[in-house]
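Lab notebook, design round three. We kept the backbone fixed and only want residue identities now. Task for the bench partner: fill in a sequence for the structure below.
Input structure tokens:
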């Protein structure tokens, strides 16, 4: 290698074989400088999300006293994520629409959670929205195959645990941010075709129903 280099003139070696100096190389891109409207660069693989969430559950499990405490902490974590997801989706909507609007009716807000929020977090819409026939203040978002629960094995002593409490926290944060305060919980409702089917139960505060009656 040395002998071949010696036969090259300084001009040729400078033009064809020189490497850029460290001083000319640009700085590495900062994650905070990414364009928030480019959703593709922000996507992560389902495997990465599942692994991260599994680690979160295991870490939290070692620091709680029971199932209820674990679900409460997962709900709190989801609430923090939901607050930021709402900010992000609102920013993207404002940037893409000439006349962005804020939902003031309940059903359009629930549809936005079912479609836009679920797609922003899990890459696809939820499977259904249902209204309780027994209680006028209850609605349900159905997810037949929760992404975050696909690779989590719940031990027998925690058989009542629903890790989708994380998703319930996201929904609760978005509803609070939109002005529809509610208590949101997650419940396993398996079927023969969907053994991991989960229902996100939304119990609205009375003030929401009163406002809906006025807006009719």
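Proposed sequence:
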């Amino acid at each position: 290698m040395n002998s071949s280099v010696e036969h090259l003139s300084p001009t040729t070696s400078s033009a064809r074989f020189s490497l850029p100096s460290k001083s000319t190389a640009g700085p590495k891109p900062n994650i905070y400088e990414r364009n928030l409207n480019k959703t593709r660069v922000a996507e992560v693989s389902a495997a990465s999300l599942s692994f991260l969430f599994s680690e979160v559950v295991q870490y939290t499990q070692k620091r709680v006293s029971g199932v209820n405490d674990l679900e409460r902490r997962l709900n709190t974590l989801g609430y923090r994520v939901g607050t930021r997801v709402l900010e992000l989706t609102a920013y993207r909507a404002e940037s893409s629409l000439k006349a962005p609007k804020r939902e003031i009716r309940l059903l359009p807000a629930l549809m936005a959670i079912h479609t836009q929020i679920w797609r922003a977090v899990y890459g696809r819409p939820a499977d259904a929205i249902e209204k309780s026939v027994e209680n006028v203040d209850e609605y349900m978002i159905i997810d037949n195959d929760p992404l975050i629960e696909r690779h989590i094995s719940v031990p027998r002593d925690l058989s009542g645990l629903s890790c989708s409490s994380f998703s319930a926290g996201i929904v609760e944060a978005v509803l609070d941010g939109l002005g529809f305060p509610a208590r949101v919980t997650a419940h396993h409702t398996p079927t023969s075709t969907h053994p991991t089917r989960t229902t996100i139960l939304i119990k609205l505060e009375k003030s929401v129903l009163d406002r809906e009656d006025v807006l009719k």
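Keep this in mind before ordering anything: Residues 2-15 have pLDDT under 50 and may be disordered.
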